[in-house]
Design a protein that fits this description.
The chain is rod-shaped and about 85 Å long. The termini are far apart. Helices cover 53% and strands 9% of the residues. It is built from three helices and two strands, in the order H-H-H-E-E. It has helices at residues 8-23, 26-53, 58-62, and strands at 65-68, 78-81. It has 93 residues and is mainly alpha-helical.
Length: 93
């Protein structure tokens, strides 16, 4: 007859350590995902603005858009637009 003895407590401790280690990486993974998605949205917005404003150079649009990326402690991404000569909001005179 063959007898087995398995130390489940050591496996449990090791699993707990791995879960703690992985939980520390979650905010960074979320920020990276937000930034990747935000970059894709920014590109679509820039192309749409180029078409809508009739600007010939794509750079004319990209130079006016500022991006604040997400970080592990700040899970937001912000796109802002600077007005220019041909880039005026409808509310400004």
């Amino acid at each position: 007859m063959i007898n087995f003895k398995v130390d489940v407590e050591s496996l449990k401790r090791e699993l707990d350590r791995e879960l703690i280690r992985l939980s520390k990486k979650i905010p960074l993974a979320i920020a990276r995902g937000l930034n990747e998605g935000g970059n894709k949205v920014r590109t679509q917005v820039q192309h749409a603005l180029q078409r809508q404003t009739g600007l010939v150079k794509y750079r004319s649009v990209t130079s006016r858009i500022e991006t604040i990326s997400a970080a592990p402690l700040n899970s937001t991404i912000k796109l802002s637009l600077r007005e220019g000569r041909r880039f005026r909001s409808r509310n400004s005179a």
